[in-house]
Model the fold of this input.
Amino acid sequence: MNISVPDADVNRRRVLSGAAGVVGSPLVVMMSAGCQRAAQEAQPPASAGNLAGRITFMHYRKADEQPIIQEMVDAFVARRAGLSVEVVAQPDQFDQKLQVLFAAGTAPDVYYSKPESYGFYVQRGHMASLTPLIKRDRYDVSDFFPGSVNQYQIRDQAYALPRGYAPNTFYVNLELFKQGGVPTPAFNWKDPSWTWSAFVDAASRLTKRGGEVMQHGVLPPLAFRDYASFVYSNGGELWDRDGKESRITQPRAVEALQFIADLMHKHRVAPTPVDLKQINEKQRWTSRMAAMTQDSASRFKENARDVAARVKPLVDAILRESPTPS
Done:
């Protein structure tokens, strides 16, 4: 089967138009190693239009998003006579299922992954480099945001291309802020008032304690994209640009991670992992048991559905001081 880079109709403008509604993390389409030999040996013209046969495409989106996925697949197939795509939806335990399929020799031809997990498949030889195909087809990746492409490169080889690039955003329950008499975070990038100290102060004032904490100021950023935002917002890194060296023990990264731990255990303004086993993040947010949380911009409607919420980006506005000033 001949494999080629998709048509150049998925570019930065398309990503921008859909980023707020389609992804909860940067989603990428990857070609499995099952197609690697075919990609290396094939010498088709620089076009994706001569694909033929059947492709298996596996993703992890849930039921409400699957019609969007199918619409994309239908549009792709409609322009290519002789090509069919089998869509496999695996919303739960995606990586576990994918690893089983690789072990059985029945892995999908194309599949979704995330920046925190694709390296696992690269290391095991389960993923083909797209760089030769990008060069062969003269596919213009400069039309994407550099970060959306670079995060899927190892040693100058691209192993994925982004489908969407939704930023992490900071959600605020305006009603709880109003009830607590706490000023809302600054919504102006240039406003210097929203600092790490102001963040802790607001979270402390919004935390209500009785025999047990009934309302926390903030939900802890424990997922990869969430705590990574804190690390990078503090000027740290998780690894170097070549993916060869971990930077998690560097002072700026340690400082940010300690700040997160302190939210739970020192300031006690965020539930601990033990607390979250009893009542999870989603339940706490929709039940108004937390005043602030962090999530993808793509889930704005979901997060705001039951809560008077407003978005506050967590990037430059929180970089006013060190999270643990001396």
